[in-house]
Amino acid sequence: MISRAAISARILAAALLLAASGRGVDRVTVLSSSNLIAVDTHAHIFQRASAPVAGARYVPNYDATLAELFQQFATHGISHGVLVQPSFLGTDNTLLLAALRAHPGRLRGVVVVDPGIGSAQLAELAAAGVVGIRLNLVGQPLPNVRLEPWPVLLGELQKLGWLVEVQREARDLPSSVGPLLAAGLNVVVDHFGRPDPTLGVEDPGFKYLLAQASTRRLWVKLSGAYRNGPDGIGDAIADAAAPLLLRAFGPERLLWGSDWPHTQFEHAEEYADARGQLDRWITDPAARRTVLEATPQALFRFQTVADHAR
Fold first, then answer.
1. Per-residue pLDDT tens for 212-263?
2. Tens of pLDDT along 14-54?
């Protein structure tokens, strides 16, 4: 017998597919705000017409549209998503914000901002559905968040209850994540913490990451395994890291993200692969459900009809 949850997932998937093709939008809005089934916490949208920042490491030559992302959601039983600003667009969050405003019940956003941004601008971002900022520090100098204007920004983030999402190689996590935790912020670490491909889970930076679980203010994304090493090395590291992260953080501090559209790995990776990996990393259905539903719902402030009724 098919469970009620499975039936709901199929109905929602069909509705999302209609929305992606431009039909049934009103019905999907109701479903998406009342039936949170699974959250993809790491996806990107962009278009070629957008001007990349100077010195961008990589600039895609294709569009990654919201409609395409919703098609992926529909196919794989994902009801909600978190859009993360890609590094090559810098602080131009225009496309991301338009998507949040068009689908406030279904999407949340993590943006890139200038550290000197004002409180009024932050409030506007919050009203649009932004819940955090991203520090994509790969290939960048580490900011000293103890120097102006960072302390003011971090104070504003605390007032808003926002998170700070960090992407950096594991060896530098003590220097990049440590000061943020010391400042009392909630921190999300991307892509398993980016351990060194030659060291894997023996990377001292990865061990530091595990040790910070006791702060209860750190979350780790099970995403982008391929970013941790070439030729299957990244997948092997993720397979070894997942049980250690689960043991240290519990499902309440782990998140799953597709990393769609897998920039720089577009021709080798697919959404189905990313979703299937989670089933391998977390085999217990209840724990997996926590990672897909309860944890991101709380952290990224998704609300259901029941929440609004309280």
1. 999 999 999 999 999 999 989 999 999 999 999 999 999 999 999 999 999 9
2. 444 434 333 333 333 333 445 899 999 999 999 998 878 88
Task: Please answer whether residues 254 and 295 qualify as being in contact, where contact means their C-beta atoms are separated by less than 8 angstroms.
Answer: yes
Q: How far, in Å, CA of 32 to CA of 151, rounded?
A: 37
- Conformation bin of residue 74: beta by default, left when phi > 0, alpha when psi is -120 to 50: alpha
What is the residue type of 23?
R
Residue 233 near residue 197, CB atoms below 8 Å? yes
What pTM does this model have?
Answer: 0.88
Q: How does 33-67 read in b/e, with b if 16+ C-beta sit within 10 Å?
A: bbbbbbbbbbbbbbeeeeebeeeeeebbeeebbbe
Active site residue 273: no
The residue from 172, 235, 259, 279 that is catalytic is 259
The residue extents of the domains of the chain are: 4-309
Angle formed at CA 115 by CA 114 and CA 119, multiple of 5 degrees:
95
Amino acid (1-letter code) at residue 292:
L
Under CATH, what is the fold of the domain 4-309?
A: TIM Barrel (3.20.20)
Cα angle for residues 190, 193, 198 (degrees, 5° grid): 135
Alpha helices in the chain (DSSP H): 4-20, 25-34, 66-76, 94-102, 119-128, 150-160, 173-176, 178-182, 204-211, 233-249, 271-281, 285-289, 295-299, 305-309
Residue type, 223: S
- Residue 289: name the closest of 72, 37, 3 by CA: 37
Tell me if the bond preceding 261 is cis, omega within 30° of 0: yes
- Between CA 74 and CA 57 the distance in angstroms is 31
Is the backbone peptide bond immediately before 115 cis, with ω within 30 degrees of 0?
no
